[in-house]
Amino acid sequence: MTGPVQQSLIDTLRPVISEERLGTYLTAAGFDVDRALNLYVWNAQIGEAFHLPIQAVEVGLRNRVAAALTAEFGSEWWKARVLLGIFDDDRRSDIELVLRRIRNRKQPFVPGQIVAGLSFGFWVGMLQPRYNPRVWSRQLRLVFPALPRDRNRGSLATSAGRAAWLRNRIWHHEPIIKLDLSAEYGRVMTLLEWISPEKALWLKPHCRVPLLLRRKP
Q1: What's the CA gap between 139 and 131, in Å, rounded?
Q2: What is the pLDDT of residues 84-94, one digit of tens each?
Q3: If both were cysteines, with which of 37, 77, 86, 120 could 69 make a disulfide (CB 3.0 to 4.6 Å apart)?
Q4: 51, burial (CB in 10 Å: exposed 0-12, middle 13-18, buried 19+)
Q5: What angle do CA 157, 175, 44 make, to 5 degrees?
Q6: Is the pLDDT assigned to residue 113 strictly greater than 60?
Q7: Taking every pair of C-alpha atoms in the chain, what is the biggest distance, in angstroms?
Q8: Per the confidence metrics, is the pTM higher than 0.85?
Q9: DSSP 8-state class, residue 172
Q10: CA distances from 87 to 22, 94, 100, 143 (A)
């Protein structure tokens, strides 16, 4: 049951958490207020723990894809007419946005600035089938040497898309308590191994996701 002190706390928190969001945790906790609030905190903590492996995937993926683009189109690949001709609208808009931001900061248009300024979605989008003939037919195994032989560009695209989806839920502070987070973690770490098994091996002891999964309220 909810006592008067608990009810007072819930009533105080409703305006700043929102009725709908708070209801998600109350429902998951069987309307046990203490557990619901503990779940709310745990949701933030597990999201924070996912930051390390997802960040490793995002940075690793963008550098691998950028290496492929550089090999095919040169160090200023974002200017290449051939690539501009096959970009989909979203990729073209992403490039225009990052160039505008760099221009507004009065910084040089160097590859590092371009690569770092583009979103995770841009790099995931570069794994679409439309880029296979011109980029991935030659570069896939060169820039992703650890990708298993029974996996392909589509495998990477699916896995990276899922990681980006999870990242966005966490970055936008959405509840992730109903997800199979053990499976999500496994998928992220597998993708990191495809990108760089060395990086995965190095980071795994520092990842707190498995520990926090065991502490779920």
Answers
A1: 11
A2: 999 999 999 99
A3: 77
A4: middle
A5: 100
A6: yes
A7: 67
A8: yes
A9: T
A10: 42, 10, 18, 20
